[in-house]
Amino acid sequence: MEKVSFFEKTFKLKKHDTNIKTEIMAGITTFMTMSYILAVNPQILSESGMDYGAVFSATILASIIAMLLMGFYANLPFGLSAGMGLNAFFTYTVVMKMGHPWQFALTAVFFEGILFMILSLFGVREAIFNSIPSTLKKAVSVGIGLFIAEIGLLNAGIIEKAEPALSLGNISSKESIVFFFALIVMVVLTTRKVKGALLWGILVSTILSLILGVTGLPEGSLVSLPPSISPIAFKLDFSNVFSLEMFSVLFSFLFVDLFDTLGTLTGVATKAKMLDENGNLENASKALLADAVGTTCGALLGTSTVTTFVESSAGVAEGGRTGLTALACAGCFALAAFFFPVFSLIPSQATSAALVVVGLFMLSTVVEINFGDITESFPAFMTILMMPLAYSIAEGIAFGMISFVLIKVLTGKYKEVSWVMYVLAIIFLIRYMI
Fold first, then answer.
1. Which of 335, 324, 286, 419 lies closest to 7, judged by CA?
2. TM spans, by residue (predicted)?
3. How far apart are CA 12 and CA 289, in angstroms?
């Protein structure tokens, strides 16, 4: 009787027509394409008052926990980490615009993760997903793309806050040169299909920033023990748990994460031909649970919502088909923990360029919106418009949902509105009226 190896028994490599070498290389590829989050997430969350180094370590720990579950429990080749857009909502809307401390935002993320675990275990997550009109799902992605790009341009000083709105900043400064250089490198490398284009753009522009004197070399070694997470770990604030604002923030996190994760899983699995004859992904519920547990643990450790990364498609394109790919990616995150001094060198202009490029990637679904039907296009338009203008993902979602329900009812198309949408629209209206 042939002896079955641990890897074969655990990940069923033969069944998925793959091998250990292919899976590990796929995991490294996924890491290269999504590792920019280790530079961007601490940069964004530190603006909320959180410790930069602690966020770096918390992001890595939460990512590893989620990917261990994705690998061993779901046996799927997806990488997970702090989601883009969700981290921006955390800092720029909940903390900066609404005026809540970062502990409040972490508490909302924690409850979102708990709620997601419950919804995932009982299969309610998919039911909610199906009750929201596809127009709004696509519009949310586009709106977040514009919002993220706006944040990137503001952080880099390319545009500035002014009266009555925004104005062009100093685009001839050394800092602006670093930003534009990073942006061009990222776009060119993406066009040439270079894996890890954003990461390479960040690293190359960091070297330029050192040459121009925008940043300086840190003292000591470029390799060190990971920073402690003690300044931000287990710092939840339960004092405003039952407030309407907590509900609004919690729902916004829930809404964006819901479509982000399910959309990513479906999109990547479709490209990899991993769906069955009914269009379903094997172990999808387990993948959703891994995402939810990652989010809950991430909030306790001190980082924003953890979600499945669309960059996982890069690893899948390299042949990754099992959880071993996710574990290899987790291993790379673990190694990255010891290179914090390198990541701390990265200037905000480099990460800002990454935000603009990620924003571009998120605009692609705009072509799928039905602009021929104004009852569909107007709510989508309001969603997209209000996110960057109101500087809030939550406001964009609220305006989109309220306008969708009102227009459908007033034009006699009320049967096209699900009961979930009616409930949510009423809640958002009450929020504005109080």
1. 324
2. 20-40, 52-71, 102-124, 136-159, 171-190, 197-217, 246-268, 288-310, 322-343, 350-369, 389-410, 417-433
3. 21
- How many CA atoms within 13 Å lie on the side-chain side of 244? 10
pTM of the model: 0.80
Contacts of 388 (CB under 8 A, 6+ apart): 143, 146, 147, 149, 150
Longest Cα–Cα distance of the chain, Å, equals: 78
Distance separating alpha carbons of residues 318 and 320, to the nearest angstrom: 6
Rounded-to-integer distance, Cα 305 and Cα 81, Å: 8
Compute the average pLDDT of residues 183-193.
93
User: pLDDT tens across 50-80, in order?
Assistant: 999 999 999 999 999 999 999 999 999 999 9
pLDDT of residue 228: 96
Tell me the per-residue pLDDT of 361-397, one tens digit each, with 9 for 90 and over: 888 888 888 899 999 999 999 999 998 888 877 788 8
Residue keyed to tokens 């490294």: 28
Q: Is the pLDDT of residue 403 over 90?
A: yes
